[in-house]
Every structure is written in C-alpha cells, then in structure tokens.
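hey
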C-alpha cells in the first residue's frame, strides 16, 4: 500500500483561508505548478526560501509515494517593471544597460539560479518551461479570451476587461479584494488611456520601435503580458484543472488573481484546487532591499564575503535555519539566528552519526512508533517543518539516553527508528551531512597529493610522458595543477 493511504494530509488553501484535506484530482498523482524566477538578476535569498518551501513539499509528496509532476517556470520575457502594464521589460532593460543580447542576460542568470539551487540541495522540477518557449500557446489563449468578449484590442495591444469579467465571476476571489473598492481607489495613470478600466491588465503589449524582445501576433509585433505565461504553461503541462499552484505571498495579487481570471475566462472553471503561498524573508528585522543595502545574496552566505554575517555558513546550515520556520510565517535572517541554527544542525548530525553504534536490546523502553507518527503528524499538518524539527531533537534526546544506557531499544525498533530519522532529515528536509562531505574532500585531497608526488617523481626521472599524462587526466577530472617555487598545488 502506498504511504499516502495511511497519512492523510491537510494543506492551507489561500483560496478558502482554511486548512483542507488534500484530495488529489487523480488518486496517487499530484500536479503542482510553482511560479519560477524572472532571470534578470542573481537569485535573492527570499526567492531561495520560497523555492525551498516547495522543494520540501515536493519531497514530502514523493516520500508519501505520490507520483508528482512538478512544473516550475523560467520567466525570460514579459515581466514589466513594477508589475504594471507600462514601462519596459526587466530583461530588456538589463540587456540595454549591460549592452548584451537579452538571451545573454537570461542565460547568465538562469545558470546562476540553477547553481544556487543545486548548492542548497534542491530536487529539480519535473518540467522547467520558459515563457519564450510558449509564445504560441499564449497567443492562442488570448484569442479565446477575445472570443468570449472579455479580451479587447486597443492600439495593437490586448487587454483583459476586469469589469466585464466580474459581471459573471469574482475578480478578487483569491486576494479578498473588492472590484468596486479597487476601481474607486485607483487613479488614472498616464499612458493607460487604451484601457477601458484602470484595473484591466495586458494580455499582449504592442512593442515600441526600441523594444528588443518582440514576436509577431494577429494584433501587433509585441510581447505577452506577465500573467499570461503561467496560465499557458500550467495548463499545457497539468491540464485546465490541477491540484496545487504555489508561489511567494507577493504574487497573490495581482499575478495569481489574474491567472484565475484568465483560466476561468477560457475554460469556465477554476483552474486550481489548492493555492499555496510562502511568506517573506526579512534581514535584521527589516525588508530586504538592494537600494538600502539591507540585502545578502545566497552565494555571499556560503563564501562569507558580506558585511552582514560574522563568518561563512554552509548551504545545509542555511537550509536548516530556513526550515525552522513554517513556510507561511515571516522569517527574519540574522547572524545570531543562523549561528544558533548551526549549533542545532551540528547536534542533529552528531546524533545521526551515533546511530550505527547504538546497541539493541530485547525490548524498547521508548515508544518509537509514536515518535515516528508524531513526525508524520507534523508534516501532515500543512508541512509544519518547525514541529518536525522539534520531533527530530526529541530523537536526538533519545539517542543520547540510549548511549548512556538510560533507555533501551529493540533491534526491530532500532531499524525502524534509524530508517525514519534518516528519511525525515535527508529525504524530506533535504539536509546533507557536511562531515561526510568534508571526509570525502579529505580523501580526495590525499589522492591528489599522492598523484602530485608520483608526477614529481616522474619529472625527476625525466619520464615526461607519465608526468604529462597525470596532469592531463587530472585536468580532465576538473582538477587544475599549479607549479610554483614552493611546490605544486591544485584547485578544483
């Protein structure tokens, strides 16, 4: 029997504002779409926290034996400055400032995004589509919305008529906003005269002559609106109605609200059963912002090259720190907080290292089955990682008591306890044992130094063919040798 049959899961649904039983559309299968990054700059720490939340959710679904299709997009066009319908595309702006092709900008920061997520031990999504790869699908959706009378063409651009849509639907169903209040509180903005209503949003924008990124369409050479890409990609890979749509809290309005409106205008049905939103990350009690200097990049945490922290912290420690807060809670990042997290992480890893040396007895004095279920209860309660971590430290306490001989554990319970503890730490939370990695690095350094000694001996014996062979094979493995006055060193 798959594990999910015995572990009922509740998810907080932003649409209802309540925790609800998770019932997938297709039994044993989960379709999940998460809004990915706009690749015009280095991925910031707040992004990492959001994607980490959904990485853990993805991992837990897999742990429960669900078959998961996890789609996370790359926004490589159409994200206009300040998320309004005027201005210029962020990627095009970056390309102009740095005198690059837009796709050079996209490639640079997509690689950075993948490198950072790999460093933090993220599982890759099932599909990672790009907005530019789905222009045709976006144009087809626009045609459908125009056919319903809700989309209208104005001066080569196409807009979504929010007021007309709201006559038969509820624009504000996700965010709780009232359309009449929004219209009353919105000032007319210069350059928006093509719109029928201030709240209308762009489905397609006619490109000005200087705009670099443009595609032909029935209405103009232009580019799609920001909200449209996620509607196109989510429905293409998950269908018109799927299980979960996730993203940062800041995307609830207008982005996700507009997605719902677009889907309902096209299909006549709500697209998603469960809307999930991860909360923000602050730094020293204040909002992170590059403009104020209250900001730190993920890579700067790992390198220690920053003015915020007292030293460098590893990816696993940073990950452990972030998972100590529930994904729907605001989390404040500080030197004191991550230093405390590092101590807790080390305690957890030391306990795990002690597991293989524990001696089994005839019976158990602790109810390990109840402990294991408590771990599941935490994750089944809307993926409550801080409660799970509290249970993991309860396991640390048990291990210390067992080491001291104050408690006993049977062979069967020891096996169950060990498997469960490792599964929750490494498979579900996605942590890594850095001591094991450090040990592997020590072994690697020893092997390379041995080969360097062999190469030095070959050179002394004038066996330059062997010397060059050792050097070239190390280069082939990504290990660069550097000969200097004080000997030969290497870098990876």
């Amino acid at each position: 029997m798959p594990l999910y049959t015995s572990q009922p899961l509740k998810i907080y649904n932003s649409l209802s504002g309540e925790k609800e039983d998770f019932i997938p559309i297709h039994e044993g299968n989960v379709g999940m779409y998460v809004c990915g990054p706009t690749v015009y700059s280095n991925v910031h720490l707040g992004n990492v926290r959001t994607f980490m939340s959904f990485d853990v959710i993805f991992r837990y679904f897999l742990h429960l034996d669900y078959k998961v299709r996890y789609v996370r997009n790359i926004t490589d066009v159409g994200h206009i400055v300040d998320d309004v319908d005027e201005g210029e595309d962020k990627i095009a702006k970056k390309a102009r400032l740095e005198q690059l092709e837009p796709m050079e900008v996209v490639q640079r920061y997509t690689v950075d995004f993948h490198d950072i997520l790999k460093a933090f031990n993220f599982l890759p999504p099932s599909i990672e589509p790009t907005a530019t790869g789905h222009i045709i699908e976006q144009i087809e959706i626009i045609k459908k919305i125009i056919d319903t009378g809700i989309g209208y063409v104005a001066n080569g651009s196409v807009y979504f008529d929010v007021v007309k849509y709201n006559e038969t639907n509820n624009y504000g169903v996700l965010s709780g906003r009232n359309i009449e209040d929004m219209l009353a509180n919105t000032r007319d903005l210069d350059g928006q005269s093509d719109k029928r209503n201030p709240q209308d949003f762009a489905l397609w924008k006619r490109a000005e002559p200087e705009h670099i990124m443009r595609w032909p369409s029935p209405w103009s050479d232009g580019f799609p609106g920001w909200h449209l890409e996620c509607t196109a990609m989510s429905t293409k890979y998950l269908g018109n109605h799927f299980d979960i749509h996730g993203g940062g809290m800041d995307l609830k309005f207008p982005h996700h609200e507009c997605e719902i409106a677009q889907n309902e205008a096209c299909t006549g049905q709500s697209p998603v059963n469960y809307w999930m939103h991860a909360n923000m990350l602050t730094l020293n009690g204040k909002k992170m912002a590059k403009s104020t200097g209250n900001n730190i990049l993920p890579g700067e945490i790992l390198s220690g090259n920053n003015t915020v922290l007292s030293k460098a912290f590893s990816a696993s420690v940073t990950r452990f720190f972030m998972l100590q807060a529930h994904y729907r809670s605001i989390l404040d990042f500080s030197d004191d907080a991550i230093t405390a997290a590092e101590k807790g992480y080390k305690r957890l890893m030391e306990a795990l290292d002690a597991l293989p040396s524990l001696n089994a007895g005839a019976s158990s004095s602790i109810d390990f089955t109840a402990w294991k279920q408590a771990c599941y209860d935490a994750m089944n309660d809307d993926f409550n990682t801080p409660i799970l971590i509290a249970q993991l430290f309860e396991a640390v306490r048990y291990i210390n008591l067992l080491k001291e001989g104050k408690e006993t554990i049977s062979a069967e319970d020891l096996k169950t306890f060990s498997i469960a503890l490792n599964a929750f730490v490494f498979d579900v939370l996605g942590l890594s044992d850095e001591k094991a990695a450090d040990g592997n690095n020590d072994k690697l350094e020893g092997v390379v130094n041995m080969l360097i000694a062999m190469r030095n001996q070959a050179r002394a014996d004038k066996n330059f063919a062997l010397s060059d062979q050792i050097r070239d094979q190390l280069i082939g493995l990504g290990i660069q040798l550097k000969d200097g006055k004080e000997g030969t060193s290497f870098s990876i």
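The longest strand covers residues 242-248. The chain has a mean pLDDT of 91.
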